[in-house]
Known about the structure:
The structure holds two protein chains of two kinds.
Chain A: H1 9-22, E1 27-43, E2 46-64, E3 67-73, H2 78-94, H3 120-123, H4 127-143, E4 147-163, E5 168-183, E6 189-196, H5 204-217, E7 227-233, H6 235-249, H7 252-256, E8 275-277, E9 299-303, E10 306-307, H8 314-320, E11 341-344, H9 351-355, E12 360-374, E13 379-392, E14 395-399, E15 403-408, H10 409-412, E16 416-427, E17 434-450, H11 453-456
Parallel strand pairs in A: 7-12, 11-17
Antiparallel strand pairs in A: 1-2, 1-4, 2-3, 4-5, 5-6, 7-17, 8-9, 8-11, 9-10, 12-13, 13-14, 13-15, 15-17, 16-17
Chain B: H1 2-15, E1 19-35, E2 38-56, E3 59-65, H2 70-87, E4 104-108, H3 120-135, E5 140-158, E6 163-180, E7 185-190, E8 197-200, H4 204-207, H5 211-227, E9 234-240, H6 242-254, H7 259-262, E10 292-295, E11 316-321, E12 324-325, E13 346-347, E14 356-357, E15 362-364, H8 372-377, E16 381-393, E17 399-411, E18 414-419, E19 423-427, H9 428-433, E20 435-438, E21 445-454, E22 459-467, E23 470-477
Parallel strand pairs in B: 4-6, 9-16
Antiparallel strand pairs in B: 1-2, 1-5, 2-3, 5-6, 6-7, 6-8, 9-23, 10-11, 10-15, 11-12, 13-14, 16-17, 17-18, 17-19, 19-23, 20-23, 21-22
Helix pairs in contact in B: 1-2, 3-5
Amino acid sequence: MVEPRGWDPPALESLLTRVLGLATDADAEAVFTERSSALTRFANSRIHQNVAERDATLRVRLVRDARTGVASTNRLDDEGLREVVARASATLALATPNPQVAPLAPSTPSTADPGLGYVAATARADPDLRATGARAVIAAGDAAHLESSGAFSTETATLAVANSRGMRNAHTVTQAKLLTVMMDGNGASGYAQATAPDVRAIDPTALGEEAADKAVRSVEAVELEPGEYPVILEEYAVATILEYLSWMGFSALAVEEGRSFMDLGQQIMGPNVTIWDDGLDPHGLPTAIDYEGVPKQRVDLISDGVARAVVHDTATATRAGIASTGHGLPAPNAFGPIAWNLFMAPGSSAKEVMLSGIERGVWVTRFHYVNIVHAKRGILTGMTKDGTFLIEDGRISRPIRNLRFTQAIPEAFSAIEAIGSDTRLVAAEYSGINARVPALRLARFAFTGATGTEAQD
Amino acid sequence: MQELIDLALDVARTAGAGYADIRVVEQTTQSLTVKNGNLAEASSNRSAGFGIRVLVDGAWGFAGSSRLERDEVERTGRDAVAIARASGLATREPIVLDDSHPAVGTYRTPFREDPFQVPLDEKLGILFEADSVMGKVPGITLRTSGMEFGREHKTFASTEGARIEQELLTSGGGIEATAVSDNEVQRRSYPQSASGQHVSGGFEAVRDLHLADNAQRMAEEAVALLEAPQCPSGTMTLIVDSPQLALQVHESCGHPIELDRVLGMEASFAGTSFLTLDKLDNLQYGSEIVNMEADATAPGGLGTFGYDDEGVAAQKVPIVTDGRLVGYLTSRETAPIIGRRSMGSSRASGWNVIPLIRMTNVNLRPGAAGSLDDLIADTSDGLFVSTNYSWSIDDRRLNFQFGTEIGWLIKDGRLTQMVKNPTYTGITPTFWGSCDAICGPAEWKLWGVPNCGKGEPMQTHGVGHGAAPARFRNVEVGVGRW
């Protein structure tokens, strides 16, 4: 169904050359994105949505005398190309000069393996494969008398950037993702997620069993008084925190504008915290270039708890007098660069060992609906979900109802007592950010509210 | 195009679809952003394509493509049917649509001034003027002003005989001023956060915002907040302004009344709903002065249209009457489950995605508490909060926490001390049950929320919420350690 590489490299090269050739009176950039994706969604233990789409979009940026005009289209025949360049030109003609304008990125050929992050088996995945995977998850739920919900998606995405400074970079990747939430109808639920460039790396049965086990252990949850507790955060929860750290502060623009918690050069977290971004690491979901065509560089964001660096696009890098790190979104934009491919260094603890010594604490499987309360202080709020447990005397004693947390993350990450020895790759729910992270044991985490029994009945 | 539409339906029917529909959609948008005195973004975007949705043996399939050409229409139609057959590998009872009469009609958003015909320099002039006013206030480090316009032309046809043409037009804009100190960042937005106010309508709506006239006040408040005391913690009487209350309605009423969510169809993404079917006509959702309705016919709402994306005509239906839950947002698939016919809230954000149950304009009706000044004067002790900053709610839409940009303490019927970083938290029915006053029609405004996300793949859609400022008793405010 989803055809791999809808535009082959020669056709793509021809397209980009033609569009740049149409822009004769300005510096020009052409950003091509193509996405062939399919998603099989199930709820109440049956497939209820099953979709596929393919689309290719061309975005043209023209720059002349510090003025910029941008237009995009998904009509890619000759008339469509002429029309999109004409629209960008019309905007350029009326735009006011911007001395802070993002320049076109200088040509820097990508040296990444063209096959990085691309797996033909994922590109060829068909609806039967996804339905079979969904059925395996549902079977695991059925065996535990649980209702299964989830989604199994496969995607092939191409990003190609060309500009009149000689930039010519392209990269095609694949991604498969399967997630499930299982529920018993009385408040107990469990979750599991797996993502990889290779759909064959995902084991639907194992994933179903993980979620089912969590849901079964969550039956008859009791209330816990909100307050500060030691916590163990599973990888899903840690990945969500890293996602929001990225939103709040890993961007050079956030630092430039004074709204980031990243106090560069300072100890902002515990000495056992090391976080970096690496779009080329095959253990993540690789992407070799950014939306300006710039090859991705590894950026060590926090090393041994010290804020070391932030990610740049061409605009912030130019102002800083350095080269872009390859983290740009389509330029120009008011949002700035973003760290998409996050990693956190593992430690040496097995999750079970982490429990040892906790007299009374909370085990969190994942967080739900997290949002930023105060970016500069790194304060987040959100709910626990799909498996929250009370820890007593070094062991999980019982399931507890979901809790709301409101917590400054740099403060919480300054008291990490143990770090898991294994890491897990987790894809964010909304943003496309992915993170390979370990589980963590934190000395203190502030739970500020609970959804009590009376509200749920 | 008619020939290709007929072809799509024929291909789907021939391949085995018991029902099929096609949407052909073209969307055009324009975005303008001025930041710190410079034009930061001026872009024009166009996306066009079609999506074919089919039911085969009671199971759904959907495929979309951007190439509206004969061979691609045939391929996409066959793909949709093949996908539906795969759905049959894991299904239960066959899906049955309601008996809504197939509509034939047209709709066009009323407007006075086409935003795409307004010269760019005139639009930029408005933004630069607002930017300049903010820039004159000492202490402002970051200022943005922006506008966004959208036009969507869509054609809908189904094997049942529906044939609908619509052209929807949206316009919006807003400003933000930010002040920064060593350990503090404070922002003020007008007329609301998240890129301002958006409506279905023309450029006249942007002119009516009078951005520059409000720029100085926003900038001065942002600077003043840097030195303002932290919002106190405790249980207080809370007055919520109109745009923040609109978002409160959105999260704590709009989402939980989506019947697909109630039925568990969103369980794996943003969760389910506490408003389960047994609550319909039984649950006292709020106090007796709380009345809400879903109104897709309300002039100017982002959830206003002629027909939804299943071809059902726009309607106005009661949701909460005298505090009691009486309705849901429904689709043709879900409405029969509660013995009703779709009230027309199934919408897709583009040609490439399926329609989902989306809020239309879920509005809190105005009350009898007069003006905001009257309400404050009637409050001896409390907190007034304005303009959303953050939002979070649990997976059943019960436990919420909101942050706002600014707050003021209320003492003896007057606003007194400005406070920074206000937050409040609660449980949905308890919170709405504590509502003892809602301002009157003069304070009521229909707000646009342009960034509502739902579904997988996630669709971002515009919805509307009307609200007037209201008062709530015994609310926990000032959450967390600061």
